[in-house]
UniProtKB/TrEMBL annotation:
Classification via SUPFAM superfamilies: Thioredoxin-like
Record-linked Pfam families: Redoxin
Species of provenance: Cyclostephanos tholiformis
Family label: Belongs to the peroxiredoxin family. Prx5 subfamily.
GO molecular function per UniProt: peroxidase activity
Keyword Oxidoreductase: yes
Keywords: Antioxidant, Oxidoreductase, Peroxidase
Database matches in InterPro entries: PRX5-like, Redoxin, Thioredoxin-like_sf
Gene3D superfamilies: Glutaredoxin (3.40.30.10)
Name of the protein described by the UniProt record: Redoxin domain-containing protein
Annotated region described as Disordered, given as residue ranges: 115-140
Classification lineage: Eukaryota, Sar, Stramenopiles, Ochrophyta, Bacillariophyta
Highest taxon above the source species: Eukaryota
Domain Redoxin: 21-118
């Protein structure tokens, strides 16, 4: 069982919520394991070098977290999770990924939580749906 979530960056800096989300998933590894989660994959529309540096800066070695880059938004588009709202796209640029958490079991998507509202299409004001507790609430 795998949980995947997305982090946001702008101009080489992790968003303030990424600094909270990643430690939240690290801190809740035992609870995630108790739910059967074996790995947490962190997805961002960036290349592998950026993702490796983020993993290093967040001190995620020896954790269940894996950082995955999607530099051309191919996976993002395949999952239909591309952020297309003109507000965030005007700030972040095109090809960005929505803030989400996904529960996957044996390659089957069991749940997808997207942190977005009409007033907050990027989910930055309340990303709780894509935090560890948010996705764990969808697990049986």
């Amino acid at each position: 069982m795998v949980v995947t979530f997305r982090i946001t960056a702008r101009k080489g800096m992790l968003s303030s919520w990424a600094f909270r989300q990643i430690p939240d998933y690290v801190a809740k590894q035992d609870a995630l394991r108790a739910k059967g989660v074996q790995e947490v994959i962190i997805l961002a529309v960036h290349d592998g070098a950026v993702m490796m540096n983020w993993a290093k800066s967040q001190k995620t070695a020896l954790t269940m977290l894996t950082f995955l880059g999607d530099p051309h938004s191919e996976l993002t588009r395949a999952l239909d999770l591309e952020l297309t709202h003109p507000g965030p796209v005007g700030v972040l640029g095109p090809g960005r990924c929505k803030r989400f958490a996904m529960h996957v079991v044996d390659g089957e998507i069991k749940a997808v939580n997207v942190s977005e509202t009409e007033d907050d299409p990027a989910g930055g004001n309340d990303p709780s749906a894509s935090c560890a507790d948010g996705i764990m609430s969808t697990m049986e």
